[in-house]
Amino acid sequence: MSGSVPNGLDRLISVDSHYQCTVDALKERTSAKFHDAIDHANRLVEAPKRAAVHLRGLPPVGLGSYLHEAARNPGYFDPVARLAAMDDDGVDVEILFSDLSSFRIFYKMLDGWKETARAFNDFSSDFAAADPDRLLVAYQLPLREIDHAVAELDRLVSDHGARTIHLPTSPNECGLPEYFDPRYDPLWARLQEMKIPVCIHLGVSDATWEIAARDPTPQMGVFTSQQPLRLAEQLGMLLLSGLFERFPDLQFVLVEPGLAWVPWYLNTLDSMTTHGYEFPALKDKPSAYFHRNISLTFMDERRGVEMRHEIGVDRIMWSTDFPHPACTWPNSRKVVADLMAGVPDDEAHKMVYGNAKRIFNV
Predict the structure, then answer these.
(1) What is the spatial distance between Cα 108 and Cα 46, in angstroms, rounded to a whole number?
(2) Domain 13-359, CATH
(3) pLDDT of 67-96, one tens digit each?
(4) How many alpha carbons fall within 13 Å on the CB side of residue 35?
(5) Which residues form a coiled coil (predicted)?
(6) How far apart, in whole angstroms, are the C-alpha atoms of residue 133 and residue 130?
(7) Is the separation of the CB atoms in 324 and 20 below 8 Å?
(8) In this structure, are residues 38 and 122 in contact, taking their beta carbons and an 8 Å threshold?
Protein backbone atom coordinates (compact mmCIF):
# COMPACT_ATOMS: atom_id res chain seq x y z
CA MET A 1 0.00 0.00 0.00
CA SER A 2 1.46 3.33 -1.04
CA GLY A 3 0.86 6.34 1.14
CA SER A 4 -2.11 7.00 3.40
CA VAL A 5 -5.41 8.76 3.03
CA PRO A 6 -5.94 11.90 5.10
CA ASN A 7 -9.15 12.92 6.81
CA GLY A 8 -9.75 9.41 8.14
CA LEU A 9 -10.48 7.98 4.67
CA ASP A 10 -9.23 4.48 5.36
CA ARG A 11 -11.66 2.66 3.05
CA LEU A 12 -11.69 2.76 -0.76
CA ILE A 13 -14.09 1.25 -3.29
CA SER A 14 -13.18 1.39 -6.96
CA VAL A 15 -16.37 1.49 -9.04
CA ASP A 16 -14.55 0.85 -12.31
CA SER A 17 -11.91 -1.86 -12.49
CA HIS A 18 -11.37 -4.56 -15.09
CA TYR A 19 -10.57 -8.24 -15.44
CA GLN A 20 -9.80 -10.46 -18.39
CA CYS A 21 -12.25 -12.87 -19.98
CA THR A 22 -11.35 -14.26 -23.40
CA VAL A 23 -13.32 -15.68 -26.29
CA ASP A 24 -11.59 -18.99 -25.62
CA ALA A 25 -12.92 -18.91 -22.06
CA LEU A 26 -16.45 -18.57 -23.46
CA LYS A 27 -15.90 -21.49 -25.81
CA GLU A 28 -14.61 -23.67 -22.98
CA ARG A 29 -18.01 -23.28 -21.29
CA THR A 30 -20.27 -23.63 -24.33
CA SER A 31 -21.27 -26.49 -26.61
CA ALA A 32 -18.87 -27.15 -29.49
CA LYS A 33 -21.71 -26.63 -31.96
CA PHE A 34 -21.72 -22.92 -31.05
CA HIS A 35 -17.97 -22.28 -31.30
CA ASP A 36 -17.99 -21.25 -34.95
CA ALA A 37 -20.85 -18.86 -34.24
CA ILE A 38 -18.93 -17.31 -31.34
CA ASP A 39 -15.83 -16.84 -33.49
CA HIS A 40 -17.89 -15.36 -36.33
CA ALA A 41 -19.68 -12.96 -33.99
CA ASN A 42 -16.38 -11.86 -32.49
CA ARG A 43 -14.98 -11.13 -35.95
CA LEU A 44 -18.02 -8.95 -36.65
CA VAL A 45 -17.48 -7.09 -33.38
CA GLU A 46 -13.79 -6.53 -34.15
CA ALA A 47 -14.31 -5.49 -37.79
CA PRO A 48 -14.68 -1.70 -37.21
CA LYS A 49 -11.56 -1.69 -35.03
CA ARG A 50 -9.58 -3.67 -37.60
CA ALA A 51 -10.71 -1.30 -40.33
CA ALA A 52 -9.43 1.65 -38.30
CA VAL A 53 -6.10 -0.11 -37.75
CA HIS A 54 -5.81 -0.77 -41.48
CA LEU A 55 -6.64 2.81 -42.45
CA ARG A 56 -4.10 4.15 -39.96
CA GLY A 57 -1.45 1.81 -41.35
CA LEU A 58 -0.77 0.27 -37.95
CA PRO A 59 0.29 -3.32 -37.31
CA PRO A 60 -2.62 -5.60 -36.31
CA VAL A 61 -1.27 -6.17 -32.80
CA GLY A 62 -2.85 -3.00 -31.46
CA LEU A 63 -3.68 0.65 -31.77
CA GLY A 64 -0.94 2.09 -29.60
CA SER A 65 2.28 1.15 -27.88
CA TYR A 66 1.39 2.27 -24.36
CA LEU A 67 0.43 -0.22 -21.66
CA HIS A 68 0.13 0.65 -18.00
CA GLU A 69 2.27 -1.54 -15.76
CA ALA A 70 -0.95 -2.85 -14.21
CA ALA A 71 -1.79 -4.56 -17.52
CA ARG A 72 1.20 -6.82 -16.90
CA ASN A 73 0.11 -7.64 -13.37
CA PRO A 74 -1.26 -11.19 -13.03
CA GLY A 75 -4.19 -9.72 -11.11
CA TYR A 76 -5.70 -8.85 -14.47
CA PHE A 77 -6.55 -12.51 -15.04
CA ASP A 78 -5.81 -14.28 -11.71
CA PRO A 79 -8.26 -13.40 -8.91
CA VAL A 80 -5.89 -14.37 -6.08
CA ALA A 81 -3.20 -12.13 -7.55
CA ARG A 82 -5.87 -9.48 -8.00
CA LEU A 83 -6.62 -9.41 -4.29
CA ALA A 84 -2.90 -8.96 -3.64
CA ALA A 85 -2.78 -6.09 -6.16
CA MET A 86 -5.73 -4.47 -4.40
CA ASP A 87 -3.95 -4.80 -1.07
CA ASP A 88 -0.86 -3.18 -2.57
CA ASP A 89 -3.04 -0.30 -3.76
CA GLY A 90 -5.05 0.06 -0.56
CA VAL A 91 -8.36 -0.72 -2.30
CA ASP A 92 -10.95 -2.63 -0.27
CA VAL A 93 -13.56 -3.47 -2.92
CA GLU A 94 -13.78 -3.31 -6.71
CA ILE A 95 -16.76 -3.27 -9.04
CA LEU A 96 -15.44 -5.37 -11.92
CA PHE A 97 -16.09 -5.00 -15.64
CA SER A 98 -14.86 -7.46 -18.22
CA ASP A 99 -12.71 -6.09 -21.01
CA LEU A 100 -14.56 -8.52 -23.27
CA SER A 101 -17.94 -7.06 -24.22
CA SER A 102 -19.60 -10.43 -24.39
CA PHE A 103 -23.00 -8.87 -25.02
CA ARG A 104 -21.69 -7.49 -28.30
CA ILE A 105 -20.83 -11.09 -29.21
CA PHE A 106 -24.02 -12.83 -28.17
CA TYR A 107 -26.23 -10.16 -29.75
CA LYS A 108 -24.65 -11.05 -33.09
CA MET A 109 -25.42 -14.76 -32.63
CA LEU A 110 -28.62 -16.29 -34.01
CA ASP A 111 -28.22 -19.50 -32.00
CA GLY A 112 -26.41 -20.22 -28.78
CA TRP A 113 -26.62 -16.71 -27.41
CA LYS A 114 -28.30 -17.76 -24.17
CA GLU A 115 -25.64 -20.37 -23.49
CA THR A 116 -22.87 -17.91 -24.37
CA ALA A 117 -24.26 -15.24 -22.06
CA ARG A 118 -24.54 -17.77 -19.25
CA ALA A 119 -20.98 -18.96 -19.91
CA PHE A 120 -19.68 -15.41 -19.55
CA ASN A 121 -21.55 -14.81 -16.31
CA ASP A 122 -20.47 -18.12 -14.81
CA PHE A 123 -16.83 -17.45 -15.74
CA SER A 124 -17.11 -14.04 -14.11
CA SER A 125 -18.63 -15.50 -10.97
CA ASP A 126 -15.75 -17.97 -10.72
CA PHE A 127 -13.30 -15.06 -10.90
CA ALA A 128 -15.12 -13.26 -8.08
CA ALA A 129 -15.34 -16.42 -5.96
CA ALA A 130 -11.82 -15.77 -4.63
CA ASP A 131 -13.47 -13.17 -2.36
CA PRO A 132 -17.05 -12.25 -3.34
CA ASP A 133 -17.18 -9.51 -0.71
CA ARG A 134 -14.30 -7.66 -2.39
CA LEU A 135 -14.66 -8.65 -6.06
CA LEU A 136 -18.12 -7.55 -7.24
CA VAL A 137 -18.80 -8.41 -10.87
CA ALA A 138 -21.00 -6.30 -13.14
CA TYR A 139 -22.75 -9.19 -14.90
CA GLN A 140 -23.69 -8.75 -18.56
CA LEU A 141 -27.40 -9.38 -19.00
CA PRO A 142 -28.85 -10.44 -22.39
CA LEU A 143 -31.88 -8.35 -23.36
CA ARG A 144 -33.08 -10.02 -26.55
CA GLU A 145 -35.94 -11.71 -24.65
CA ILE A 146 -37.03 -9.80 -21.55
CA ASP A 147 -38.58 -12.81 -19.82
CA HIS A 148 -35.25 -14.59 -20.18
CA ALA A 149 -33.39 -11.49 -18.95
CA VAL A 150 -35.49 -11.39 -15.79
CA ALA A 151 -34.92 -15.12 -15.24
CA GLU A 152 -31.17 -14.71 -15.73
CA LEU A 153 -31.16 -11.77 -13.31
CA ASP A 154 -32.90 -13.91 -10.70
CA ARG A 155 -30.33 -16.68 -11.26
CA LEU A 156 -27.41 -14.28 -10.95
CA VAL A 157 -28.74 -12.90 -7.69
CA SER A 158 -29.67 -16.24 -6.13
CA ASP A 159 -26.69 -18.30 -7.35
CA HIS A 160 -23.93 -15.71 -7.63
CA GLY A 161 -24.95 -12.92 -5.27
CA ALA A 162 -25.03 -10.32 -8.05
CA ARG A 163 -24.97 -6.70 -6.86
CA THR A 164 -25.20 -5.03 -10.27
CA ILE A 165 -25.65 -5.66 -13.98
CA HIS A 166 -23.88 -4.19 -16.99
CA LEU A 167 -25.81 -3.17 -20.11
CA PRO A 168 -24.58 -1.89 -23.51
CA THR A 169 -23.82 1.79 -23.96
CA SER A 170 -25.56 1.82 -27.35
CA PRO A 171 -28.45 -0.66 -27.38
CA ASN A 172 -29.23 0.30 -30.99
CA GLU A 173 -25.89 -1.20 -32.08
CA CYS A 174 -27.01 -4.49 -30.55
CA GLY A 175 -30.30 -4.44 -32.44
CA LEU A 176 -32.21 -3.35 -29.34
CA PRO A 177 -34.63 -0.48 -28.65
CA GLU A 178 -33.56 2.33 -26.34
CA TYR A 179 -33.94 1.70 -22.64
CA PHE A 180 -37.05 3.82 -22.25
CA ASP A 181 -38.99 1.37 -24.46
CA PRO A 182 -41.83 -0.29 -22.48
CA ARG A 183 -40.56 -3.75 -23.48
CA TYR A 184 -37.96 -3.40 -20.71
CA ASP A 185 -40.47 -2.50 -18.00
CA PRO A 186 -40.62 -6.00 -16.41
CA LEU A 187 -36.83 -5.91 -16.04
CA TRP A 188 -36.76 -2.39 -14.62
CA ALA A 189 -39.51 -3.34 -12.18
CA ARG A 190 -37.53 -6.36 -10.99
CA LEU A 191 -34.30 -4.38 -10.63
CA GLN A 192 -36.11 -1.64 -8.74
CA GLU A 193 -37.68 -4.22 -6.44
CA MET A 194 -34.32 -5.89 -5.79
CA LYS A 195 -32.51 -2.53 -5.39
CA ILE A 196 -29.90 -3.55 -7.96
CA PRO A 197 -28.28 -0.72 -9.96
CA VAL A 198 -27.72 -0.80 -13.72
CA CYS A 199 -24.20 0.04 -14.90
CA ILE A 200 -23.57 1.51 -18.33
CA HIS A 201 -19.85 1.60 -18.98
CA LEU A 202 -18.19 3.85 -21.52
CA GLY A 203 -17.85 1.81 -24.68
CA VAL A 204 -16.54 2.33 -28.17
CA SER A 205 -19.30 2.36 -30.77
CA ASP A 206 -18.91 1.08 -34.29
CA ALA A 207 -19.33 4.64 -35.57
CA THR A 208 -16.57 6.18 -33.45
CA TRP A 209 -13.91 3.88 -34.89
CA GLU A 210 -14.11 6.13 -37.93
CA ILE A 211 -12.70 8.91 -35.74
CA ALA A 212 -9.82 6.62 -34.84
CA ALA A 213 -9.01 6.17 -38.50
CA ARG A 214 -8.62 9.95 -38.92
CA ASP A 215 -6.86 10.66 -35.60
CA PRO A 216 -3.35 12.10 -36.21
CA THR A 217 -1.92 11.13 -32.81
CA PRO A 218 0.04 7.92 -32.09
CA GLN A 219 -2.17 6.68 -29.24
CA MET A 220 -5.36 8.16 -30.72
CA GLY A 221 -5.69 11.08 -28.33
CA VAL A 222 -8.57 12.63 -30.28
CA PHE A 223 -10.49 9.36 -30.44
CA THR A 224 -9.86 8.50 -26.79
CA SER A 225 -10.85 11.92 -25.46
CA GLN A 226 -14.24 11.65 -27.19
CA GLN A 227 -15.30 8.41 -25.52
CA PRO A 228 -16.54 9.77 -22.16
CA LEU A 229 -18.80 12.22 -23.99
CA ARG A 230 -20.57 9.33 -25.70
CA LEU A 231 -22.35 8.72 -22.41
CA ALA A 232 -24.06 12.10 -22.81
CA GLU A 233 -26.33 10.50 -25.40
CA GLN A 234 -27.45 7.76 -23.02
CA LEU A 235 -27.77 10.24 -20.16
CA GLY A 236 -30.09 12.36 -22.28
CA MET A 237 -32.17 9.32 -23.24
CA LEU A 238 -32.58 8.34 -19.60
CA LEU A 239 -33.39 11.82 -18.29
CA LEU A 240 -35.75 13.08 -21.00
CA SER A 241 -37.74 9.93 -21.74
CA GLY A 242 -39.84 9.70 -18.59
CA LEU A 243 -38.29 6.38 -17.57
CA PHE A 244 -37.76 7.60 -14.02
CA GLU A 245 -41.38 8.72 -13.73
CA ARG A 246 -42.33 5.08 -14.27
CA PHE A 247 -39.53 3.74 -12.05
CA PRO A 248 -38.66 6.44 -9.52
CA ASP A 249 -36.30 4.25 -7.47
CA LEU A 250 -34.38 2.66 -10.37
CA GLN A 251 -30.66 3.48 -10.20
CA PHE A 252 -28.27 3.84 -13.15
CA VAL A 253 -24.50 4.24 -12.84
CA LEU A 254 -22.63 5.79 -15.76
CA VAL A 255 -19.14 4.34 -15.61
CA GLU A 256 -16.10 6.35 -16.75
CA PRO A 257 -17.84 9.48 -18.04
CA GLY A 258 -15.79 11.86 -15.94
CA LEU A 259 -17.42 14.75 -14.12
CA ALA A 260 -16.64 18.26 -15.33
CA TRP A 261 -18.90 18.25 -18.42
CA VAL A 262 -21.97 17.10 -16.48
CA PRO A 263 -23.04 20.42 -14.86
CA TRP A 264 -23.00 22.10 -18.27
CA TYR A 265 -25.05 19.27 -19.77
CA LEU A 266 -27.63 19.30 -16.98
CA ASN A 267 -27.94 23.07 -17.28
CA THR A 268 -28.48 22.68 -21.03
CA LEU A 269 -31.27 20.14 -20.51
CA ASP A 270 -32.94 22.24 -17.83
CA SER A 271 -32.75 25.34 -20.03
CA MET A 272 -34.46 23.51 -22.87
CA THR A 273 -37.56 23.04 -20.69
CA THR A 274 -38.03 26.84 -20.60
CA HIS A 275 -37.12 27.56 -24.23
CA GLY A 276 -39.88 25.94 -26.20
CA TYR A 277 -38.85 22.29 -26.02
CA GLU A 278 -41.59 19.93 -24.95
CA PHE A 279 -40.94 16.88 -22.78
CA PRO A 280 -44.43 15.55 -22.10
CA ALA A 281 -43.18 12.54 -20.13
CA LEU A 282 -41.51 14.71 -17.48
CA LYS A 283 -43.03 16.22 -14.36
CA ASP A 284 -39.80 17.77 -13.12
CA LYS A 285 -36.58 19.26 -14.46
CA PRO A 286 -34.16 16.78 -16.04
CA SER A 287 -31.57 17.60 -13.39
CA ALA A 288 -33.99 16.50 -10.67
CA TYR A 289 -34.08 12.99 -12.11
CA PHE A 290 -30.31 13.01 -12.38
CA HIS A 291 -29.88 13.82 -8.70
CA ARG A 292 -32.30 11.04 -7.77
CA ASN A 293 -31.49 8.25 -10.23
CA ILE A 294 -28.01 8.67 -11.77
CA SER A 295 -24.51 8.24 -10.38
CA LEU A 296 -21.15 8.81 -12.09
CA THR A 297 -17.63 7.48 -11.72
CA PHE A 298 -14.38 9.40 -12.05
CA MET A 299 -10.65 8.79 -11.71
CA ASP A 300 -7.91 11.37 -11.28
CA GLU A 301 -10.00 14.49 -11.97
CA ARG A 302 -9.40 17.31 -9.53
CA ARG A 303 -11.52 19.76 -11.52
CA GLY A 304 -14.48 17.41 -11.25
CA VAL A 305 -14.03 17.16 -7.49
CA GLU A 306 -14.03 20.96 -7.31
CA MET A 307 -17.41 20.93 -9.10
CA ARG A 308 -18.88 18.29 -6.77
CA HIS A 309 -21.66 20.50 -5.41
CA GLU A 310 -22.92 21.30 -8.90
CA ILE A 311 -23.02 17.58 -9.67
CA GLY A 312 -24.15 16.37 -6.25
CA VAL A 313 -21.72 14.82 -3.78
CA ASP A 314 -24.06 11.86 -3.29
CA ARG A 315 -23.81 11.01 -7.00
CA ILE A 316 -20.03 10.75 -7.41
CA MET A 317 -17.94 7.57 -7.05
CA TRP A 318 -14.20 7.16 -7.44
CA SER A 319 -12.41 4.42 -9.42
CA THR A 320 -8.93 3.18 -10.36
CA ASP A 321 -9.69 1.88 -13.89
CA PHE A 322 -7.24 -0.99 -13.27
CA PRO A 323 -5.39 -1.92 -15.51
CA HIS A 324 -6.08 0.62 -18.27
CA PRO A 325 -3.71 3.46 -19.28
CA ALA A 326 -5.36 5.99 -16.94
CA CYS A 327 -5.04 3.57 -14.01
CA THR A 328 -3.92 4.94 -10.63
CA TRP A 329 -2.49 1.60 -9.40
CA PRO A 330 -0.34 1.17 -7.33
CA ASN A 331 -0.53 4.79 -6.14
CA SER A 332 -4.26 5.17 -5.58
CA ARG A 333 -3.87 6.21 -1.95
CA LYS A 334 -1.65 9.13 -2.92
CA VAL A 335 -3.93 10.05 -5.82
CA VAL A 336 -6.96 10.08 -3.53
CA ALA A 337 -5.11 12.14 -0.95
CA ASP A 338 -4.26 14.75 -3.58
CA LEU A 339 -7.77 14.71 -5.05
CA MET A 340 -9.45 15.20 -1.69
CA ALA A 341 -7.10 17.84 -0.31
CA GLY A 342 -9.28 20.52 1.26
CA VAL A 343 -12.49 18.51 0.84
CA PRO A 344 -14.54 18.06 4.04
CA ASP A 345 -14.14 14.63 5.59
CA ASP A 346 -17.75 13.55 5.13
CA GLU A 347 -17.82 14.55 1.46
CA ALA A 348 -14.53 12.85 0.66
CA HIS A 349 -15.67 9.67 2.41
CA LYS A 350 -18.84 9.58 0.31
CA MET A 351 -16.98 9.92 -2.98
CA VAL A 352 -14.33 7.26 -2.33
CA TYR A 353 -16.39 4.78 -0.31
CA GLY A 354 -19.78 5.70 1.13
CA ASN A 355 -21.74 6.31 -2.08
CA ALA A 356 -20.56 3.03 -3.61
CA LYS A 357 -21.36 1.16 -0.40
CA ARG A 358 -24.91 2.53 -0.56
CA ILE A 359 -25.54 2.08 -4.29
CA PHE A 360 -24.07 -1.43 -4.55
CA ASN A 361 -25.18 -2.64 -1.11
CA VAL A 362 -21.62 -3.47 -0.09
Answers:
(1) 12
(2) 3.20.20.140
(3) 789 989 999 999 999 999 999 999 999 999
(4) 8
(5) none
(6) 9
(7) no
(8) no
